[in-house]
Amino acid sequence: MIFRTENESPRGRITLFKALAEKQIKASKALLTSLDHCLGCRACEKICPSEVSYTQISLLGRKFIASQNTHAQQSLKQKLSEKVLTTPSLHPLIKLSAKAVAPLNSLLGAKGRKTSALNTLGNLSHEITSGPSQISSLQGYYPASIKTKSQTNPQVTLFKGCTGDLFEQQTLIDAIALLNACQFDVLVPDKQQCCGAISARQGDIDHMETLARQNIHQFELLSAKSQAFISITNSCTGQLKTYKQLSHLSGAEKFSQKVTDIISFLASAIKNSPIQFAPLLGEEKMALKNTQQIGVHIPCSLKNVLKEESLLFDLLENIPDIQLITINDQYCCGAAGSYMLQYPDIADKLLSEKMNDIAAKHYQTIVSSNIGCSLHFKQGLKKHEAQIARKVEVLHPVQLLARQLIKTLK
Length: 410
Known about the structure:
This protein has helices spanning 10-21, 29-36, 43-47, 54-68, 76-86, 91-96, 101-107, 117-124, 164-167, 169-181, 197-201, 205-222, 234-241, 252-258, 262-271, 300-306, 309-316, 339-342, 344-359, 371-383, 385-388, 397-404, and strands spanning 155-159, 185-187, 226-231, 259-261, 276-277, 293-297, 323-326, 365-368, 393-395, 405-406. By secondary structure, it is of the alpha/beta class.
């Protein structure tokens, strides 16, 4: 869509991966950058009549490149940015000084470069939840909004994601509140790790497997009786489900079988629960134009990987009289995990089409069920503030539902 060259199409990239593996061509920085420009949105897989698994070909290709070619090495800035995001043990330190990321730009020579990875990360620093985690670091049950720990309620286990605790504390709290309202006790393993998606994208399959092994172990320790392992972000859900392909890891297939997304789990759980939701602005304001309109962003991971976008609408329609307007979803928004840090210019160009669509509408709230996409939207709304000419809030669907929850249970 942006490059309009055969080399940067799925078919072209598969041909290049094959030629590299067979040593028909030599790797160059330009060629490897062309391969790396793929967002991993998997739209090509969804429409391919031959059901070619581009993802598996790409993963094998990236692993080969990472092991064979020095051109594939990440810059120090990119490595540091991803390390900050994907290492939970670093998050408490970052939270104590949420603005600590910005000085790193100057330290590493990124000052004045509007497109650097650290500059982009620095712009996100104000989104970081300041102070210690609101979710206790102790293993076990977490505060129930409606029911306390019981011996009879079914259990579920929550996967926070490496950036969930950093950027989406409220979503985690709201997810627990909704799950409690649906009569589930919630467990959160303390030492869970990144899902491994970013490592896989960089061709570091060994590190991805190490993270998978640690997550499987941590969830097994706490969650023998858990009905489901629930992820709050779609891209993590998709990656966790791929653990089943790691057949050499003990418990991998069993783990993946329990993995589900918060959207699909709640869509079903709420149907079987007596909980209710209030209209967005109350009955006395229902006559006001646009007060019930919500812009809905459908992440690629929900649409092309999990293929559960219809459940997102089913879930949100639990709010009475809500009006859901789909944001232009022809292409990826450009977030794509750490892609927005690595290729911010391309990511911004992709997002600009979404911003144009938002500017033409009237809603004041956007929901997105993928953390990276939400962060990308928040930054885009600031950059396009004059064009959009109104304040637009970006929320996880879980946050919107929790705001409207009527706590009818005692």
